[in-house]
UniProtKB/TrEMBL annotation:
CDD domains: NDPk_I (cd04413). Belongs to the NDK family. The active site is at residue 123. PANTHER family: NUCLEOSIDE DIPHOSPHATE KINASE. Its EC number is 2.7.4.6. Its cofactor is Mg(2+). GO terms for molecular function: kinase activity. This is Nucleoside diphosphate kinase. It holds the Pfam family NDK.
């Protein structure tokens, strides 16, 4: 039996773009062996972000998160590969960049900047259902 090829949505969040880390993040995705299928620079509006983060509505970090995601351009990437959904989450590291493992994108490149939202450089879909929903939102 072979492992099926999956697709996931990766976002380089506004902090990653502003810090000129897009190339470094793409390099890590490619070096792991995943394929870049589509890529675009997006100025996300409230409508898109409230759908993307619907599950977090009402949480204390929701408003700062939506504001942060509108603070600058985002690079949206469609990435393909066997088990790429869990594979990219592993490359990204855990949510809090201060404690994310060294070797991961968040662990190597991110930290706490004293803000209400964790600026942790990247987003990656967390399940096949989320990936399908999010890819439709960001790539239509
Ligand atoms: P994930 O991006 O690691 O999957 P989620 O729990 O889906 O994490 O949260 C979405 C985003 O919201 C995070 O990436 C981070 O930017 C922000 N966030 C999550 N939890 C907190 C928190 O407790 N404080 C501040 N920001 C948070």
């Amino acid at each position: 039996m072979t492992t099926p090829v999956e697709e996931t949505l990766v976002l380089v969040k506004p902090d990653g773009v502003a810090r000129n880390l897009t190339g470094e993040i793409l390099r890590r995705i490619e070096a792991k062996g995943y394929q870049l299928v589509d890529i675009r620079l997006v100025e996300a509006d409230l409508e898109l972000l409230s759908q993307h983060y619907a599950e977090h509505q009402g949480k204390p970090f929701y408003e700062p998160l939506i504001e942060f995601m509108q603070s600058g351009p985002i690079v949206a990437i469609r990435v393909a590969g066997e088990r790429v959904i869990e594979g990219f989450r592993s490359l990204a590291g855990t949510t809090d960049p201060t404690t994310a493992a060294p070797g991961t994108i968040r662990g190597d490149l991110g930290r706490d900047w004293g803000l209400k939202v964790q600026q942790n450089l990247v987003h990656g879909s967390d399940s096949p259902e989320s990936a399908a929903r999010e890819l439709a939102l960001w790539f239509g």
